[in-house]
């Protein structure tokens, strides 16, 4: 799924989701990206590695060449024992060619997550997803406390990135959580635009 395909700054929103909450966060981030002029959001997911679980993904599987060409990146995973999911980690383990060539250096990035309990390890999961981004030389950003919802939400939201606390099968995200994800997408897109303009203005 893509938004505003006529625009030339492409932000990939890459996620892995088991029960749908992380996918919902991804969609709100994508809407935030697409609300910024010149930007489009491309939703992508990663392959499952659990061979006993048959899943038809709602969005296309990410291709390394897509990642290479993007102008910015949002990465999301549910909490798995305080870490990113095995499927997301497996994907990043296959990106050595991009690291060697430096294709992601100086591109903006952010992370997001979801868990079924408020103490499930959201912050450590968010931090685990930043590690490969730092190694790729990306410019990792969070959510500033100038966002009012960050002060008052009890259903998710951290300075490290958007998050949600919801039980399996919960139909809709909390309103404040959705707004934080939207704002995070906007911030990522604005930075991507500024970086592109800065690059184009260089002699």
UniProtKB/TrEMBL annotation:
PANTHER family: FLAVODOXIN-RELATED PROTEIN WRBA-RELATED (PTHR30546), FLAVOPROTEIN-LIKE PROTEIN YCP4-RELATED (PTHR30546:SF23). PROSITE patterns: FLAVODOXIN, FLAVODOXIN_LIKE. InterPro entries: Flavodoxin/NO_synth, Flavodoxin_CS, Flavoprotein-like_sf, FMN_Rdtase-like_dom. Its cofactor is FMN. Belongs to the WrbA family. One of its GO terms (cellular component) is membrane. It comes from Vibrio casei. The keyword Electron transport does not apply. This is NAD(P)H:quinone oxidoreductase. It comes from the Bacteria. One of its GO terms (molecular function) is electron transfer activity. Keywords: Flavoprotein, FMN. Residues 11-189 form the Flavodoxin-like domain. It holds the Pfam family FMN_red.
